[in-house]
Amino acid sequence: MKPMLLAAAMALMPLATLAHSDTFTADLSHWAEADHRSEANVARNPYRHPVQTLEFFGLHPDMTVIELWPGGGWYTEILAPFLRDNGTFIAASFETEPKQDTPRNRYRAGAGKRYQQKLAATPSLYDKVQVVTFDPPTTTRLGVEASAHMVLTFRNLHNWAMAGDLQAVFEAAFEVLTPGGVFGVVEHRANPGMSAESGYMDQQQMIDLAKKVGFRLAASSEINANAKDSKDYPKGVWTLPPSLRLKEQDKQKYLAIGESDRMTLKFYKPEI
User: Which candidate, 47, 13, 1, places its Cα nearest to that of 229?
Assistant: First the structure.
């Protein structure tokens, strides 16, 4: 579909219902396997299913997309080049010069600096990436109200839950999205009764929280499910790859399980 026709189509329907074209799928597949990605990152594609996940969320190349806490840039490596020519990619990352010197702030600042260094190292792909500070609870505004088509978060909910900031994050996503805009969530999925300290979160509780702040559930997917994940490990979800917190202890066992069982949820901001 030509850009002008795509824009017209997007104006006539909620973003949550937009179909994904074969051309966009081919582009996503290209960037997921491209040479700018390390072998280690590409090796995780069978566990993280980036193309299928982004298709499920309804990603289009002329959208304004915000990724919350991009970490080392695993998904940025796909999103930024895909959106570079016709869309806008915004990374909501850490404050690199925190006002208070604490272990947590030092860790976050270091991660934020490494992320920006990654962007600066390859301007041909990342020169148009916009970086904003998103550091709950002190900084939670993601941008101008109703200015983004999609907000995405991958395996971050437990961090915000442990800090008591999860509702504020959902509210920030809701505020910045246009009506019909998509909030895409991937997170380690808990068994009933598990705490956020395990790294796993209860799927129904996440749906209920999203509804509380105003979202509606468009769809859920089992793209990132893993029936082998029993979720009862000594170091929580970090026992599994890629973290392998137990190092060589039972390493082959955990490699055989693979990465975690994850919920994949597509919410949208309804028309007011």
Answer: 47
In what order do the strands lie in the sheet containing 64-68? 130-133, 88-93, 64-68, 148-154, 177-188, 262-268, 216-221
Report the number of distinct structural domains present in the chain.
Answer: 1
Whether 9 is covered by a domain: the verdict is no
What does each of the 272 residues of the chain score in pLDDT, given as a tens digit? 344 434 444 444 566 766 677 889 999 999 999 999 999 999 999 999 999 999 999 999 999 999 999 999 999 999 999 999 999 999 999 988 877 888 888 998 999 999 999 999 999 999 999 999 999 988 999 999 999 999 999 999 999 999 999 999 999 999 999 999 999 999 999 999 999 999 999 999 999 999 999 999 999 999 999 999 999 999 999 999 999 999 999 999 999 999 999 999 999 999 87
Q: What is the pTM of this model?
A: 0.92
Domain of 85 in residue numbering reads as 21-229+264-268
Task: Tell me the CATH number at 83.
Answer: 3.40.50.150
